[in-house]
Amino acid sequence: MLTKSELKKRLILEKSRKIFIEKGYKKVTMTDIVEACEISRGGLYMYYKSTHEIFLEVLRIDQEGVGFGFLDGMKNGISGVEILEDFLQEQKEELLNKDQNLAVAIYEFFFLNIGNIEENILKEQFDSAVKILSELIQYGMDRGEFNSVNKEIAAKNIILLLEGIRVSSEVMNITDELIDEQFNYIKDILVN
After folding, report:
1. What is the C-alpha separation between 41 and 33, in angstroms, rounded?
2. Domain assignments of the chain as residue spans, ordered by start
């Protein structure tokens, strides 16, 4: 059971995440978060000193569950192709619902903090995603479901393609068809 303090922090992070999705990173103020959480300014500062600190915590929480579906699927002997299909479907839904993700806020955060290597959350997320996808690709190759490829290069290509689509979706209309076209290309290369 969560303590009162843990529940308050969870509330702050949930409300803050919504504000970051709505406003991006650089436009969010501590006042916005105070108002959304309906707490005092002092109440917020008991837990977090800045929007920067809050945003880092939101990103860490978002990152925590990444990859468990892959690992569970592989442990349970689910087809590598099926795991890949599920992953691509989740990515498609996220890309088409850009008003429900932190992409703009993450890019703003990164560009404002570009010199701070220790907080390069994009690099951490990229490396983590490459590792997990590499494991899936190896799993599929071991089962004879995927073609023999350089798993790390293939994983990097997939992540870079997803990021490219994500960035493009901020400046142009991304359609189901465009996403399907790109995802089918990935499957054509990987799936045996």
Report:
1. 9
2. 4-58, 65-190
Tell me whether the CATH fold assigned to 4-58 matches the one assigned to 65-190. no
For the segment(s) 65-190, the CATH number from 2.40.170.20, 3.30.450.40, 1.10.357.10, 2.30.110.10 is 1.10.357.10
User: CA 80, CA 138: separation in Å to the nearest integer?
Assistant: 9
**Average pLDDT estimate for 65-78:** 79
Look over the chain and give the mean of its residue pLDDT values, rounded to a whole number: 88
Q: 51: Cβ–Cβ under 8 A, 6 or more apart, which residues?
A: 16, 25, 28, 29, 30, 33
CA distance 58 to 10: 10
Q: Structure tokens of 141? A: 């190759």
C-alpha to C-alpha distance for 24 and 185, rounded to whole angstroms: 32
DSSP-assigned letters across all residues of 8-31 = HHHHHHHHHHHHHHHH-STT--HH
pTM: 0.79
Q: Which of 51-65, 99-113, 175-189 has the highest mean pLDDT?
A: 175-189
The third-level CATH classification (topology) of the domain covering 4-58 is Arc Repressor Mutant, subunit A (1.10.10)
